[in-house]
Design goal:
This protein is mainly alpha-helical. The protein is built from 13 helices and no strands.
Length: 307
């Protein structure tokens, strides 16, 4: 018998040259919008930070080089605003994350009426920033504020107190008001992550005799860790540029107790008229935000970036 060998030729299926060009053109609108609304304004602010620009000046501002950066780095008010911003961001994000996680766990539980709490939990997120600040301005009012009325009626205070008149209480009052606005966002992110956890994992943990706290520690928290990182990143970025709540509640006072970097940029530009120094502070704030984003990309567990 004769054996016939049939040679098999591998068939290579490849993309034709240039076939990906139409798909890449679909990214062009997004690229144009990113350049127009993000990259170009940032570069322009960086350009302004290198010039000596002042409102009301009779001559055009000349090139100042790094003088604006040397000035703001040596200015004690900038240092105070930086530490206020850091404290404001850390404490407000910590409060929002802890409270948001607790409420998200409650919403995901079998507690009676937990489903109805979703509406109340996300309600602060629908309140505009200005309305939120005006609401807390009424709550903290030293004459007829709701907070004073509640504490006095409960016997926790002997008399009404001006919460926004002392440095320590003013800073923490602003932080609490801002954290209240962040909590709904944390709840939405973490509640969605909790709903994605398979029920079989909880059943297996309960079968092994794990209690509530053990399940939260060894099952829930590890699985929602990427969502927690995402929520914390967004809250940190937002808190670093918080402006409305400070402007409407305290105007940076008393003294410089509540002056954060974003409000300092406003003061430097529109009240002192030093646009170059204000742009330099804005660039420093943008650099800090960019550094935090890089830290987030390093901390984020591998594999979650492409999900």
């Amino acid at each position: 018998m004769f054996r016939i060998r049939v040679a098999t030729v591998p068939i290579r299926v490849g993309r034709r040259r240039g076939s990906g060009l139409p798909l890449r053109l679909l990214n062009l609108p997004a690229l144009v919008l990113t350049l127009g609304f993000s990259v170009i304004p940032i570069l322009y602010v960086a350009y302004l930070s290198l010039r000596d620009l002042r409102l009301g000046a009779t001559s055009a501002g000349g090139f100042a080089g790094w003088d604006n950066y040397r000035f703001i780095l040596a200015d004690s008010s900038v240092a105070t605003a930086f530490w206020n911003t850091l404290y404001f961001s850390v404490l407000s994000v910590a409060i929002a994350t802890i409270v948001g996680l607790a409420i998200a766990l409650l919403l995901d539980s079998d507690a009676p009426g937990a489903g109805w709490l979703v509406l109340g939990a996300v309600l602060p997120w629908a309140v505009p920033e200005i309305v939120n600040a005006l609401m807390w301005q009424w709550i903290y009012n030293p004459t007829y504020g709701a907070l004073n009325g509640l504490l006095v009626s409960l016997g926790l205070l002997d008399a009404y107190r001006a919460w926004l008149s002392t440095p320590v209480s003013a800073l923490h009052a602003v932080i609490f008001a801002y954290a209240w606005k962040l909590v709904p966002f944390v709840i939405i992110i973490l509640y969605a992550a909790l709903r994605s956890i398979p029920a079989e994992l909880y059943e297996s943990a309960q079968t092994d005799g794990a209690g509530f706290w053990a399940v939260v520690r060894f099952v829930t928290l590890p699985l929602i860790a990427p969502a927690v990182v995402v929520a914390v990143l967004f809250c940190v970025v937002w808190s670093m540029r918080a402006f409305d709540i400070v402007y409407l509640l305290t105007r940076g006072g008393p003294g410089e107790a509540t002056t954060v970097l974003s409000y300092f940029v406003f003061l430097k530009a529109f009240e002192f008229g030093d646009l170059g120094a204000a742009a330099a502070v804005a660039c420093v704030l943008a650099a800090i935000t960019f550094a935090m984003t890089c830290v987030y990309l390093r901390v984020l567990p591998k594999g979650t970036e492409s999900r």
